[in-house]
Write a structure and sequence with these properties.
Radius of gyration: 30 Å
Largest sheet: 8 strands, mixed
Structural class: alpha+beta
Strand content: 25-35%
Strand order of the largest sheet: 15-19-20-27-24-23-21-22
Length: 668
């Protein structure tokens, strides 16, 4: 074997170097500035430690802070390790488990020593200070390869039972690697890592909170303490993120939902929403808007059962691949006696539907379908249930009971691209009318575990790609991107990621091209040749679920809904009791014009009323006193604006009626 290897750089140039040379040495050979800036290496596209020796011919690129996505991943991974080291130094007897990077930071799960309780938020500043000491020490982060049995024995001897268990369950023969910080502390990790702790910015991270967690996410296992942090490349990025967090906290849909009396959740119905009248008004307005959108696009609305036999789910493939997320129920009368099991061993099983698609196929199969009947666009505001872990539930953003704006298009092979293109146009119109000007389009490609042949997947992916191109969305403006391995088990899919008012993204819309389910459930139509053919099934949604989308709307608008969606669109408030009758007449006229209006004739000062209705996010406050009653006018205060405008009541009603009209019903 030659002692020399060939390293090809991004510009196409190549270097012959001694086997075992590191990427850092090559960076230093190119220039001292690059060596100082280099954080890691990409070896044939794989992120690696910059100090790891090169053993064979390779394509090499060097990662610097300009490669922000890769750099952030490295920094956050290292912050998590530094956090674990700091906690074990401060609190001897604490066991470490694992700690990954996240979308905006990192976390680490710990098992506190038996003689102390869970970690607390007030301990975070102390831990932060210890982390900064470790960073300032500039400790080298060194990769080591260990024999499996020796590593398990070491973890067990040191009382690291979680690490020992984890190592013991990794496949036999798999290379086990650890990273050592300086000469002492170490953690089991695949890497990669920065060259040393000193590469981190001690002013660019912050520990944010402590929560409970379970070992491996299973509530049957030991409870742990999870410490969250946010980590960035520099102090400026951290400061900007903290401002975003502060703004996000103000916009939290749970907080605003309470303040506006929109909904509540409680333990008696884990993961299900109790909609209050005002919240359900938003729901109804959004639902009515979506019905008009789908009606105008040629969809036929249907309603399907909540419960179906397990055999149906077996046939569709969900029973084998999705059963852990389904609520299953016995198809028998439960035992009502005090003795014996509640359900017998002979019970047949049924399940609450986690999705609507199999039921839509069953509707399609009723009666013979011809090629002339296609495309057949079927829609359902379908209530579904998914058995999400309690710890994963989050307000109305992630729930167990939800309603999808679901739809399925049954079409011929030659209709797929046009149908997907038309869906993209419909989705674009809906998002923009709902106040989201910016969104990204992504194509999720075949996962490792999937149904269907490679040829089937090749064709389905190419069709979605072509449809996006025809829709004019395969561009940088639309954030076009392909995501290998992220498709559903039965189909590739397009994902549509909204950007909200403070820059966060939310994956909402989707359309999936599916040839598997029609085959499994025996859906067919008679073609022009008189033979039976399989339709292609396009699974599509625009909002995703009403619950989550309303949560997104609450946070996007910070509760200040556009007038057409606001649960209360106007309040008429009196300055003096002499104006009460005029206020009542004004409200009656507003209601007659189709405006959702309330009255406030309480014996309170007008400034108090203004403040209270502003907090309730009412778009318009119409103030009336003796002068307004005499002149037939109102003083209009608009939410979020200073001052007021005086105008005749009739003119005010006309203005509000225009504002209260949904965007799809306004004159072009």
């Amino acid at each position: 074997m030659s002692d020399m290897i060939r390293v090809t750089l991004p510009d196409g140039s190549a270097r012959e170097v001694v086997r075992g040379t590191t990427a850092l040495q090559i960076a230093a050979d190119i220039g001292p500035g690059l060596a100082k800036a280099a954080l890691a290496a990409k070896i044939d596209g794989e992120l690696r430690d910059i100090m790891r020796p090169l053993e064979e011919d390779t394509n090499l690129s060097l990662v610097t802070s300009r490669d922000e996505a890769d750099a952030l991943e490295l920094f956050r991974h290292d912050y998590a390790h530094v956090l674990a080291e700091a906690v074990q130094k401060l609190f001897p007897g604490t066991q470490i488990t694992f700690g990954p990077s996240t979308g905006d930071g990192f976390y680490y799960d710990f098992a506190p020593a038996a003689d102390r309780g869970p970690f607390r938020d007030d301990e975070l500043p102390l831990i932060e200070e210890e982390m900064r000491k470790i960073i300032a020490a500039d400790l080298p982060l060194t990769r080591e390869v260990w024999e499996r049995d020796k590593l398990i024995a070491k973890w067990a001897a040191e009382g690291e039972t979680f690490k020992a268990e984890w190592a013991a369950e990794l496949p036999q023969g798999e290379e086990l690697t650890v990273y050592r910080s300086g000469d002492g502390w170490m953690d089991m990790c695949r890497g990669p890592h920065l060259a040393s702790t000193g590469k981190l910015d001690p002013a660019a991270f912050k520990l944010t909170r402590v929560s409970g967690a379970y070992w491996r996410g299973d509530q049957k296992n030991a409870q742990l303490s999870r410490i969250y942090g946010t980590g960035w490349l520099n102090k400026k990025q951290l400061a900007e993120h903290l401002v975003r967090l502060e703004e996000a906290a103000k916009r939290d849909h749970r907080k605003i939902g309470r303040e506006m009396d929109l909904f509540h959740l409680q333990e008696e119905a884990h993961g299900s929403v109790f909609w209050h009248p005002k919240g359900y008004r938003i729901y109804r307005e959004l639902e009515a808007y979506m019905r008009r959108a789908i009606d105008g696009s040629g969809y036929q609305e249907v309603k399907t059962p909540q419960v179906m036999d397990a055999r149906q789910w077996e046939q569709s493939g969900h029973w084998g691949k999705y059963r852990e997320n389904m609520f299953v129920i016995p198809d028998e009368v439960p035992n009502i006696e005090s003795e014996g099991p509640l359900v017998s061993d002979d019970a047949e099983w049924m399940a609450l539907k986690p999705m609507n698609c199999p039921a839509h196929v069953l509707i399609f199969r009723q009666g013979m379908k011809s090629y002339r009947d296609l495309p057949l666009r079927m829609a359902e505001m379908g209530c579904c249930h998914r058995n999400e872990p309690h710890g994963a539930l989050h307000g109305i953003m992630r729930v167990r009971q939800f309603t999808q704006d679901d739809g399925h298009i049954f079409c011929r092979e030659d209709q797929i691209v046009e149908e997907v293109r038309d869906f993209c146009a419909l989705l674009d119109r809906v998002y923009k009318q709902l106040g989201f000007e910016k969104y990204a389009v992504k194509l999720a490609l075949r996962p490792d575990m999937r149904f269907g042949t490679d040829e089937m997947w090749d064709k389905a992916e190419a069709e979605l790609r072509e449809a996006v191109e025809r829709a004019g969305m395969a561009t940088e403006e639309y954030g076009w991107e392909e995501l290998p391995g992220e498709g559903a088990f039965y189909a590739p899919k397009l994902e549509f990621h909204l950007t909200d008012a403070i820059g966060r993204t939310w994956q909402c819309g989707t359309i999936q091209s599916d040839r598997v389910m029609p085959e499994r459930l025996d859906a067919s139509y008679i073609g022009e040749d008189g033979e039976r053919h399989r339709p292609v099934m396009l699974h599509r949604a625009i909002l995703g679920t009403y619950e989550r989308f309303i949560g997104i709307l609450i946070e996007h608008f910070a509760g200040r809904f556009p007038t057409w969606l606001a649960p209360v669109q106007a309040v008429v408030a009196t300055i003096v009791s002499d104006a009460d009758d005029y206020a009542k007449d004004a409200v009656a006229q507003l209601v007659a014009a189709g405006i959702r209006a309330d009255i406030d004739v309480r014996n309170e000062k007008i400034n108090y009323k203004v403040r209270e209705h502003s907090l309730a996010k009412v778009p318009y406050l119409l103030v009336v006193g003796n002068r307004e009653a005499e002149e037939g006018t109102v003083a209009i205060r608009t939410l979020g604006q200073d001052g007021q405008r005086i105008m005749p009541l009739a003119e005010a009603i006309a203005m509000l009626k225009g504002e209260a009209t949904p965007p799809d019903l306004r004159e072009p």
